[in-house]
Amino acid sequence: MLASPLERRIEKLERINAALMAHVERNMDQQGGAYALFQTAITLEGRVRTRTEELTGLMHRLERSNAALAAAKEEAETANRSKTRFLAAASHDLLQPLNAARLSVSALADLPLGPEAAIIANQVERGLQTIEDLIKTLLDISKLDAGIVRPEVKPFRLHELFATIAGSFKPFAARKGLRLRVRGPDLVVMSDAALLQRILQNLVSNAIRYTESGGVLLAARRQGDGCRIEVVDSGRGIGAGERDLVFEEFYRGGAGRGMPEEPGLGLGLSIVRRLAQALDHPLILASRTGHGTRVSLGLALGSAEAEPPARAVPVATRLTGARILLVENDQATADALKRLLQNWDAQVSAYRDLAEVAAGMAGGSVAPDLLILDYHLDDGACGLDVAAYLRNLTKAPLPVIVTTADYAPEIERRVAGIGAELMHKPVKPAQLRSLLTYMLT
Q1: Does 100 share its domain with 139?
Q2: pLDDT per position in the chain (441 positions), as tens?
Q3: Residue 226 and residue 160 share a domain
Q4: Alpha-carbon span 197 to 191, nearest angstrom
Q5: Cis peptide upstream of residue 426 (ω within 30 degrees of 0)
Q6: Residues 214, 294 within the same domain
Q7: Domain containing 386: what range?
Q8: 431 domain-assigned
Q9: At 193, which CATH number?
């Protein structure tokens, strides 16, 4: 049955209405998606702003923290420098009476004593030596920590250094029934000879101290383009838990556990580690309990000609009749040193400063054969001025020994500049006597 025109019109209107509704729904869906995207964008913007504010705050806190760390570092470095200056001044003041005490004990030992008195004198001497070693080592550690020690790396022959160390420690090893052997080719190495000698002395001394039987080997060998120095002992070895501790201050492995030798100060290996770091010599420790210990250092080989060895000082003899002029502002030290020199048959004139020396010379004192001068005198005066005055007065290059408890490099340069010899306090009587004989001869 055919639809009437009205029905067809109604059907058409329904199709148009459906199409319009579909269009409206599509528009509403699009508008809803855009709104959702807009809402999402707003949310993300808020999150980004929050994160940015958090990051900015974190950066500000980091900047404040870095500033605080920099301030703390500067404060620590300032405190370290102050500690070094304090220790240097304190050590000078401590070494002065110690110097007088050692000279007095040495003078006492030269007198005829009974067996018991001689034993007591030796005990006092050992005690003073321990105090001196402790003061000097603490000062050395302070200088190393403050970066004051500046290595002077030069080429030199390792064989000469090994011979010096072997000569020093073979009697010590022999007293314990140990063998001290030295082995290796005659190599030229790059290092600071004085600092390297200090390292090896501490290592060899430590090895002998903690070895009951067998021996100690000081060896060198080529390793590629460099050289490796080793100190090997046949001692009890170091347990795994102690290997990092042995390089700490005042740690004494084995002390009090049946060691026949007196324990050391516990500072030798601490000095070794600091000196090795200052010289940039890699330091390696290997050990097995019950089988001994090996400590090795890595060095670069030198290609330039090494410096000639220092002249050996001859064995001392008596100083009969030698005229020695002594300038020392510390009365106890002056008295002790004068007594010691007189025990060696020298003629000694002692003064406190340049004014007293000038008065003595004006009064008819005989020109001296040799001068022993304290570097630091009263009121900021310097013993080198006395040397200049007397050399100008006598028109002769008088030999001079300068004594001081100050280890400043500038003093060493000034003393060397006038051709004098430098001895650090406390003065060791045997070394002084040997040096006096050498210079007077």
Answers
A1: yes
A2: 555 666 666 666 666 666 666 665 565 555 555 555 556 666 666 666 777 777 777 777 878 887 787 777 777 666 666 665 665 555 566 666 777 777 777 777 777 777 777 777 777 777 777 667 666 666 666 666 666 667 788 898 888 888 888 888 888 888 889 999 999 888 899 988 888 888 888 888 888 888 888 989 999 998 888 999 999 998 887 766 665 666 665 455 554 444 444 445 445 677 788 888 888 889 888 888 878 888 889 998 887 554 554 444 444 445 788 899 999 988 888 888 888 898 888 899 999 999 999 999 988 888 899 999 999 898 889 999 999 999 999 888 899 999 988 878 889 899 999 999 999 888 888 888 888 888 887
A3: yes
A4: 10
A5: yes
A6: yes
A7: 323-440
A8: yes
A9: 3.30.565.10
Q: Helices in 110-220 by DSSP H: which ranges? A: 115-146, 158-175, 193-209
Q: What is the DSSP letter of 218?
A: E
Give the count of domains, the chain: 3
Q: Please check whether residue 326 is in contact with residue 349, taking contact to mean a CB–CB distance below 8 angstroms.
A: yes
**Residue indicated by tokens 């306090």:** 425
At 344, list the tokens: 């060696």
User: Could you tell me if 273 and 245 lie in one domain?
Assistant: yes
> Domain check: are 130 and 163 in the same one?
no
- The pTM (predicted TM-score) of the whole model is 0.49
* Whether 161 and 134 share a structural domain: no
